[in-house]
Amino acid sequence: MALEARPLLWLALWTLAVPARSFGKDADGGWRRPGPWAPAAVTEEEHCTVERRADLSYAEFVQRYAFSRPVILQGLTDNSRFRDLCTRQRLLASFGDSVVRLSTANTYSYQKVDLPFEKYVEQMLHPQDPISMGNGAGSGVPFHWHGPGFSEVIYGRKRWFLYPPEKTPEFHPNKTTLAWLRDTYPALTPSARPLECTIQVW
């Protein structure tokens, strides 16, 4: 039987400012920044509605998840070496002078800005205001279609909102993700709510 790829409409909202579990000293890789926004930039969901698996064979993954539903894979690999390479200090030392391109994800803005990675990290990674597109705590991307894919959280946390392709979420493409979370999400009926979960690593 051939498996069909089912795209998911998804949104990721992430934050590096809200405390989560700790892996010891410097476990945040130097990414968590002090400030008044730290305690509650984005609240946790009440209940993770995406299945978590720590014991999954390749065959079961392909048959049950790869083309039809999301799954959170836990503890399958040791990525400590990669985490060491992704600390704030190491990335700035290796790529601080490299130019990165920033753009907005809303419908009508095509502005692109090039700046050094160090400037992006030091000046742009700040908590997001609900009315402005940005990065750092509370930032995210608008809902969009996605086929099968993989995402890993190296530091911090990422909150996911996922809808199946047959459901269209209520959102305005020119409002920020944080504005959707604060203004629209609380009024959703249970049947209109997405699958959601926060994946976190510190």
SSE layout and pairing:
Elements: E1 8-15, E2 52-53, H1 58-65, E3 72-73, H2 80-85, H3 88-95, E4 99-103, E5 112-116, H4 117-124, E6 139-140, E7 144-146, E8 156-163, H5 177-184, E9 195-201
Parallel strand pairs: 2-3
Antiparallel strand pairs: 1-6, 1-7, 1-8, 4-5, 8-9
Mean pLDDT: 76
* Straight-line N-to-C gap: 41 Å
Question: How many E strands?
Answer: 9
Task: Give me the Rg, rounded.
Answer: 18 Å
| Discrete helix count | 5
Overall tally of domains: 1
Question: What brief labels describe this structure?
Answer:
19% helix, five-stranded antiparallel beta sheet, 202 residues, disordered N terminus, alpha+beta, two-stranded parallel ribbon, globular
Give a quick summary of the entry.
The protein is α+β, with helices and mostly antiparallel strands.
Structure commentary:
- The chain is built from 5 helices and 9 strands, in the order E-E-H-E-H-H-E-E-H-E-E-E-H-E.
- It has one domain.
- Strand 2 (52-53), helix 1 (58-65) and strand 3 form a beta-alpha-beta unit.
- It is α+β, with helices and mostly antiparallel strands and 202 residues long.
- Mean pLDDT is 76; it is low at 1-23 and 130-134.
- The chain has helices at residues 58-65, 80-85, 88-95, 117-124, 177-184; strands at 8-15, 52-53, 72-73, 99-103, 112-116, 139-140, 144-146, 156-163, 195-201.
